[in-house]
Amino acid sequence: MGRALAAEPNNALAHAVAALSAVRTGDADGARAALERALAADPNLFQAHALLSLVSLAEADTDAADAAARRAVALAPASALAHASLATTAFFTGDARTAEAETALALEANPNSVAAHLVRADLRVAQGELTDAFRAAGLAVALDPRCAPGYSALGMIALAQNDLATAERCFDRALELSPSLVAARTGMGVTYARQGKLAQAMEMQKAAIALDSSSAATRHNLGAIHLAQGRLEEAVEAFQEAARLQPDWAMPHANLAIAYLDLNRFAEAVQEGELAVRLGDDSPRTHTYLGRVYLEQNRVNKAWASLRRAVDRDPTFALAHFQLAEVYLRLGRSRDARREQLEALALQPAAALETRDYARTEARVELGSLNAGIRTDGALDHGRTSYFASAERQIDSWDRPHSQWTRTSTQG
Start-end of the TPR repeats (predicted)? Predict the structure, then answer.
């Protein structure tokens, strides 16, 4: 490639391929510089605009990413790559409708588009359709066996299904193919944490942060591991940083509430728990811990309301029943308390242990992302785990009208 550029310094296509190489090695600055040269040589090279959209996502410039992707579509309306790039941008900005439409157009243009199948997997996880998501990610890997983001996506889906053995195999393969893939490191860290391998989980999360220091999800996961280890001050620091990086994400605030509860800092725990709910966290877990904090403050009626909400959301969440039993005892309703205790014991015997350690073990370690976008609760996470490290999936091979374009894998 270097010889080609030396021989033809104005070869836009060669500069675009150089940009692709920079993407694969995680060199955002190098990719942008190569794309600037490519577009200076040929402002209408749609592949360069498509790749520019992904580099812009890596830089958290969603407006520029959207503009570049739309320019690619305008230049090549029949290109699967162009539509897949716009679908990716739409997904990461929370525009699920556009992401669905553009993914469909990409697959209509090329049913074997690896990038489009991966965006479809992202979308299906966000909708809670894990079987369809697994199928889409599996197709991507079948089409391109060296597609690291595809294996990472499969790992995230397996993790959401609590299939830890499959998740570990998938993340291991993804990291073998692409050691700089932050989503895979994040997922492997969560897998280790769920297996009780907290030292390995910590090492993996720190490596992910080193690759992408602006990722809210990786900071959050680090905090969750600290929380599981009982290192509460470190957990608070990590959750606060995650919340700073992504203020509209509820989960760091929900876990801050747990950390503050364990530190007996009840006013701060209430503040963070209520903020998590305002930001859209309606999970039984968060309502349960918020109810527990209210109980510590002797706000029994508010505790009852929060815990009833938790039970209504998930009647099988044992800890909510156990905490509700304590509320009923405070209210003098011993029969109701006994009923809730028996329900908790039937669901999970460990719920009989009213300890902070039990509460801590319930803290959910966030998945980080399936390409920075997916949480186990099926919601979009717009935090940037690593658009850039995952961008290679988009351009692994391009729609190529030029015979000199060297194919690297399945046409995308």
Answer: 148-181, 216-249, 284-317
Question: pLDDT (tens digit, 9 = 90+) per residue, 132-182?
Answer: 999 999 999 999 898 888 999 999 999 888 899 999 999 999 999 888 888
What number does CATH give the domain 112-281+364-394?
A: 1.25.40.10
Query: 23-31 contacts: CB < 8 A, separation 24 or more?
Result: 23/51, 23/54, 23/55, 23/388, 23/391, 23/392, 23/395, 24/178, 24/392, 25/180, 26/180, 26/211, 26/388, 26/389, 28/55, 28/58, 28/59, 28/388, 31/55
Q: Which two tokens stand for residue 226?
A: 């600290």
Closest CA to 174 of 224, 202, 203, 137: 137
Whether the predicted model's global pTM rises above the 0.85 cut: no
The letter for the amino acid at 133 is A
Other C-beta atoms closer than 10 Å to the C-beta of 315 total 12
CA distance 287 to 260: 15
Q: Would you say 254 and 285 are in contact if contact means Cβ atoms under 8 Å apart?
A: yes
Question: How wide is the angle at C-alpha 146 spanned by C-alphas 114 and 72, nearest 5°?
Answer: 35
Fold agreement (1-109, 112-281+364-394): yes
What is the spatial distance between Cα 192 and Cα 242, in angstroms, rounded to a whole number?
Answer: 21
Multiple choice CATH, 1-109, 1.25.40.10, 1.10.3370.10, 3.10.150.10, 3.40.50.1980: 1.25.40.10
* Residue among 216, 190, 237, 206 nearest 363 (CA): 190
Q: What is the pLDDT of residues 35-66, one digit of tens each?
A: 999 999 999 999 999 989 988 887 778 899 99
Q: Which of 326, 349, 350 is nearest to 338 (CA)?
A: 326
Spatial contact of 84 and 382, defined as CB atoms under 8 Å apart? no
Four-residue CA torsion sign, 25, 30, 32, 33: negative
Hey, where are the domains in the chain? Answer: 1-109, 112-281+364-394
What gap in Å lies between CA 380 and CA 382, rounded to an integer?
Answer: 6
Confidence at residue 49, expressed as pLDDT on a 0 to 100 scale: 93
**DSSP assignment string, 125-154:** HHTT-HHHHHHHHHHHHHH-TT-HHHHHHH
Rounded to whole angstroms, the Cα distance separating 159 from 165 reads 9
Closest of 29, 22, 135, 84 to residue 398, by C-alpha: 84
Q: Which amino acid is at 131?
A: T
Task: Answer whether 293's CB lies under 8 Å from 257's CB.
Answer: yes
